[in-house]
Amino acid sequence: MTSEELKALDHRYTMQTYGRFDVALDHGEGATLYDLEGNAYTDFASGIGVASLGYGHPKWIAAVEGQARKLAHASNLFYTQPYARLAEQLCLRTGMSAAFFANGGGEANEGIIKLARKYSYDKYGLGRSNIVTLKNSFHGRTITTLNATGQDVFHRFFFPFTEGFRYAEANDLQSVKDTAGEDTCAVFVELVQGEGGVLPLERAFVQSLAQWCHENDILLLVDEVQTGVGRTGSLFCFQQYGILPDAISFAKGIAGGLPMAGILANETCAHVLTPGTHATTFGGNPIAAAAALAVLEEMDEAFLKSVNEKGQYLRERIAAFGSPLVEQVRGLGLMIGIVLKQDVDRAALVKEIYDGRVLVLTAGPRTIRLLPPLVISQTEMDAGLEVLRRVLCKEEEA
Question: Does the global pTM surpass 0.90?
Fold first, then answer.
């Protein structure tokens, strides 16, 4: 099949809900992807932060193949080893107490919202179900998580949305206090607002927020769907902020390319969700859990240190371009935002970058987002940087 044949097949038989980039991918190795004609692309996107170990990682492949030969699925009506071992590893490495496994980020965030509201109902009864989220946040595309998202652009078309969300200013504890009230059960934040433009929250704000939530028995929930699993240079981003949330959601990179997500809860919330109150058929799927165990096994201290070093290298190199089009370079670990100046045509720049065979993402109104595989090599980083430099500095290719 050629790229054009694949595009025609897509247009004929799939709902056109995605504005796809004009690239038809076939296979990959490391942090390099290849289209159907064999052209190589440096991957600064990793499937929107999913391919944490890149492509063709031998330990990941062995884990998936080995589990597929044993047991592909059993459902949560039975015990299987991979999900239990994965839950143990996640709890031991985070200080959390219990895990629930799901399939994607939106589903994980639905679950964490249910957990918060049931915690409050069990303790206080009806009338304490509101959740405060932050303006510019993004929490998913279900009916509930769209309204949890603090961006008006997402509050369209699908009325009526699930009620019970109010929005506060990021990095402003007084705004959170003013927005919350006696009906509030939780505050739900991303420590780096990914879709909003790769915006890290201030450490002092997060720590003060955690203390205020604890004093008022308001749960602090952290959306780690994009920031978790090594992406920001620690296993989970909250570990860099010196807090222990009541619960976190995770997804994307956890299984290195297979659909998996979940919730981790501390001791306060570990027993809130009881039999019959929450479930999902594919959660804790043995193959996905085996893949996730392989991902976690790779993410030791040396690996996470390398993520921080690579992220610093990329941010410093891009800032050193001195591009007249760039206002700021920001982020944590290998979650990087290149903020363009107000009058720059981002769509045109992104097209030029793709024409140079580098895959990037966008975020917010004027940010180019980089989420490369965490295993990206020096050679691959430098190849991508050269294209970015040429495009951002408006230089012709030699």
Answer: yes
